[in-house]
Write a structure and sequence with these properties.
Elements lengths: L2 E7 L8 H10 L4 E5 L2 E7 L5 H10 L3 E7 L4 H8 L3 E3 L3 E4 L11 E4 L12 H10 L8 E5 L5 H8 L4 E6 L2 H13 L5 E5 L10 E7 L2 H13 L1 E13 L3 H9 L3 E9 L2 E8 L1
Parallel strand pairs: 6-7, 8-9, 8-11, 9-10, 11-12
Antiparallel strand pairs: 1-3, 1-4, 2-3, 5-6, 12-14, 13-14
Helix pairs in contact: 7-8
């Protein structure tokens, strides 16, 4: 399975467009992003790539771009070239196996990112980790929906969660989650490849969903049914001005607003099951 790399070039007056374009590209199926100098790099499976949609989007913002094919066997080299450790305050450090530095944080996670989204670099994952660190997970049941690398599930396991399910529709994410769970000695994580209909027939004390606005709005009703009364559900993957849309869907599904934090124009939030 090949990927398409799209490199978007910004001039000095356009750099603020980066976060906006990431949101729109994520809705088109782009899975991973990183920024370097005045460029945004975005990756999508070749089978999901739509040149017409991309061209219309980027022309509307008057930015230039280029594309190239990234063969499957070269993807890890791309990640290793660009992947730097991430530190979430004094709480958590996230690094790859090829990093030899140590960090003075309470928890440490080793992630082999491969093709999966969720290395801690993006503001949404960083904020989810920060919020998760504020709650007591000991002996709790957790669902990580759209798990990517499995980083949120692994963090819950380090916080002594009892039973954890990590679900992602992408085969690479599923395989990557298994690999990363094993690497971090978190056997309580059960990885599942599938969509919203693949969630086990049970309820959870905590649910994580770091995806994008459209998927969240569609899947919140089902996710709410899998949350225990009094349980908490964490959302991210949407821009600050989109929180009102999440709040509306949540209020219609017996989820009350708890708190929200913001970083780089993105929001992460927590809701309680009434």
């Amino acid at each position: 399975m090949n990927y398409i790399e799209v490199k978007v070039n910004f001039n000095k007056e356009q750099t603020e467009l980066s976060e906006i374009l990431i949101a729109f590209l994520a809705e088109q199926g782009f899975e991973s992003f990183y920024e370097e100098n005045d460029s945004l790099f975005a990756y999508i499976e070749e089978a999901n790539y739509n040149l017409k949609n991309l061209d219309e989007l980027l022309k509307s913002y008057k930015v230039s771009y280029s594309t190239k094919i990234i063969p499957q066997q070269n993807w890890n080299a791309e990640w290793e070239k660009n992947f730097e450790p991430t530190v979430v305050e004094d709480l958590l450090s996230i690094k790859a196996p090829f990093h030899d530095m140590d960090f003075n944080t309470k928890y440490n996670i080793i992630i082999e990112p491969k093709m999966s989204f969720g290395t801690g670099h993006h503001a949404t994952t960083w904020m989810m980790c920060k919020l998760i660190g504020e709650y007591d997970f000991e002996n709790k049941d957790v669902l990580d929906y759209g798990c990517g690398t499995g980083i949120l599930a692994i963090f819950a396991a380090l916080l002594k969660a009892k039973d954890i399910y990590a679900i992602d529709i992408d085969e690479w994410a599923y395989e990557n989650t298994i690999e990363n769970a094993n690497r971090n000695n978190t056997p309580q994580i059960k990885a599942i490849q599938g969509d919203i209909n693949s969630i086990p027939d049970k309820t959870f004390d905590f649910i994580f969903a770091n995806i994008n606005l459209n998927v969240l709005k569609k899947d919140i009703p089902t996710l709410a049914k899998h949350l225990n009364n009094g349980g908490k559900i964490f959302f991210s993957g949407f821009l600050n001005n989109e929180l009102v849309q999440i709040q509306k869907v949540c209020s219609e599904n017996n989820l009350s607003f708890n708190k929200a934090i913001q970083k780089d124009n993105w929001t992460a939030c927590v809701f309680n099951k009434i």
